UniProtKB/TrEMBL annotation:
Transmembrane segments: 12-33, 39-58, 65-84, 96-114, 134-154, 160-181, 188-205, 217-241
Keyword Transmembrane on entry: yes
Domain of life: Bacteria
Organism of this sequence: Hydrococcus rivularis NIES-593
Name under which the protein is recorded: Membrane-anchored protein
InterPro entries: DUF347 (IPR007136)
Keyword terms, alphabetized: Membrane, Transmembrane, Transmembrane helix
């Protein structure tokens, strides 16, 4: 299969910042469109699903990583992943425990097929179309699973949004410590953190947007979505400009 330049970003602090912001937007934007705009879960799913298909098509056309394209896909995948879980639970009556099990198994199957085919799950090796297909399938399932896990812990168990955010944040911190100090496998650490940042971001989104009577801070889905989208846009613009900035030559440095 033809190899391309890596079409996903390096895993830096900016990567994790935008990822968490995107997961928050996925939670609040889905609620904004479905309930504030009265599009309903079904109507919102069709619109966001169509937009995701369009931006994914463009993403696969690219020969290298382009920040705007990549992160637009992530934001839309976050929204669609949220909607998948919400529709299963709210419209079809599937329990959150069941969705947690189903999405966990589905994600493990994708990882197993991916590894069997490519012998790696590493982020820095997404340089073929097949690997990118596996990659986006896994990303979608992590968002759906993260939504389900976050809702289960914060709502179904009655723990609340703030406590849930603290638990998921502590778990991410534990993985970070295990990676830097105990040298656990980098790929394993990445995917564990990636999965957990979804419910962490979703819990933060719900904490900020939901009314005080249900344990939120009452910012509303509109305000929360706009604030986080603005921060994402600023970071993506910064990264895009940074990539275009020419590197200094030795002569330039001497001058």
């Amino acid at each position: 299969m033809k190899k391309l330049l890596n079409r996903v970003p390096e895993v830096t602090i900016y990567f994790w910042m935008i990822k968490i912001l995107a997961t928050t937007v996925g939670e609040t934007a889905a609620d904004f469109l479905a309930f504030t705009m009265n599009l309903g879960l079904g109507g919102t799913s069709y619109i966001m699903g169509s937009l995701l298909a369009i931006v994914l098509f463009n993403q696969f056309r690219l020969k290298r990583y382009v920040p705007v394209s990549y992160w637009l896909v992530v934001v839309l995948v976050s929204i669609v992943g949220t909607l998948i879980t919400d529709r299963l639970v709210d419209e079809l009556g599937v329990t959150l425990m069941t969705t947690n099990i189903v999405f966990s198994v589905a994600l493990l199957v994708v990882f197993a097929l991916w590894y069997k085919s490519e012998k790696t799950l590493a982020m820095h090796s997404i340089n073929t179309t097949k690997r990118e297909l596996y990659y986006w399938a896994a990303i979608l399932l992590t968002f759906a699973l993260g939504t389900s896990t976050g809702d289960y812990l914060a709502e179904a168990s009655g723990l609340g949004y703030a406590q849930s955010a603290l638990i998921f944040g502590a778990a991410i911190a534990a993985i970070t410590i295990a990676y830097y100090y105990f040298r656990i496998d980098a790929v394993l650490a990445f995917w564990l953190a990636y999965i957990l940042t979804r419910p962490f971001g979703a819990s933060i989104g719900d904490l900020l947007s939901q009314p005080a009577k249900v344990g939120g801070l009452g910012w509303g889905t509109t305000g929360t979505s706009m604030v986080f989208l603005s921060i994402i846009a600023s970071l993506v613009i910064y990264l895009s400009l940074k990539r275009k900035k020419p590197a200094l030559t030795s002569l330039d440095r001497q001058e």
